[in-house]
User: Fold NAD(P)/FAD-dependent oxidoreductase from Sphingomonas parva.
Amino acid sequence: HFDIAIVGAGHAGAQAAIQLRQLGFSGSIGLIGDEPELPYERPPLSKEYLAGEKAFERMLIRPETFWAEREVALIAATRIDSLDPVARRLRSSAGDVFSYGELIWAAGGTPRRLGCAGGDLDGVHVVRRRSEVDAIRTGLDGVERVAIVGGGYVGLETAAVLRKAGKQVVLIEALERLLARVAGPDISAFYAAEHRAQGVEVRLGSAVERVEGAGGRVTGLALQSGGTIAADMVIVGIGIDAAVAPLLGAGAAGANGVDVDSFCRTSLPHVYAIGDCAAHENLFAGGLRIRLESVQNAHDQAATAARAIIGRPEPYAAIPWFWSNQYDLKLQTVGLSLGYDATIVRGDPATRSFSLVYLLEGRVIALDCVNATRDYVQGRKLVLDRAMVDPARLADTAVPLKEMDG
Ligand code: FAD
Assistant:
């Protein structure tokens, strides 16, 4: 039995345990996760870890001693399959049963695979867990041509690392531009040009028909357009499905993720959900119910749930931020561009340092800053204030954003 059981020992789950102790919670905490490792940071998986530039030990969220000292019971390599919300019991795939007082569900998401023929051939990979990235790294020896499916952040970061490692890289995106779900066309065009300049073959508007193989191993991709791409390895970065089946199976409201209120409470009593799997109404998305896949959201929702559980509730209202590293480009975003109706380019993309400012009804709702940390830092207040700023001033890099208070 745990006073608080946390399912999922990733960013959100680990942070929830850390927060609970920091807030003075002294009851028992069990952190149950299906990966074998201590809780670790995921962002380096498609960056420095894939590149072999960062040791795994440096990605641990906390050293092993931390968890022992804080009396957080780590239950690794244990997958929770079902939940009985009345008896307040969890059951693992191995048949272990855990009872809880309060449950925090922080199971993240499962990477989508290609549903087409050949999608499970040897040499077809996803990038979500350490074990998957280790498999890529091991498999890279002797690989010359890599096809990456998906032009989101994970696909692009992976492309940058493999290109730098000297591989021939083809990146296939089904939509007509990169990062279509998360960024404006100026950012998409900039990154497409950048990857092409680095030697990545970027194919937009290309959908995979099937994965081709020989002897059980991938040899390439057949495209719906009829063409084919030869590849010794395929890496699929086409998003995740929220890992919430046990919750929905127990009757929790939700569909794409599990629905939570502003205190991260699900519709089931004593059950909270946080991180990538939690569909919440986000103030910075105009109150729309969304899932946010970011370290920021995982951390801040962990704090929200911890506070609610110990009786010091504060509704979730954190400003979203995110980053992505590709080559020598550091992208930093603040706010959510969802629903924008105009954009302003601030600075010249040709200098490889600029920002894209997103407006809705004349108000600043988000910024994507490429090698422009000053804009990122100073733009935060404009987003918080939903500032209404003269577009000509926003575009003028001679005027610092901190001097524009709307
Ligand atoms: P996770 O960190 O995925 O943790 C969930 C854990 O629960 C996993 O260990 C999972 O295996 C486990 N689990 C799932 N189901 C069960 C079950 N039934 N029983 C037990 N355990 C279970 N965000 C940024 O802000 N910046 C970045 O640069 C960035 N880069 C990224 C690069 C990559 C390659 C990836 C994959 C993600 C990146 N992200 C980045 C996103 C960020 O890592 C996630 O938003 C964050 O990890 C979400 O935390 P979480 O705890 O909700 O989920």
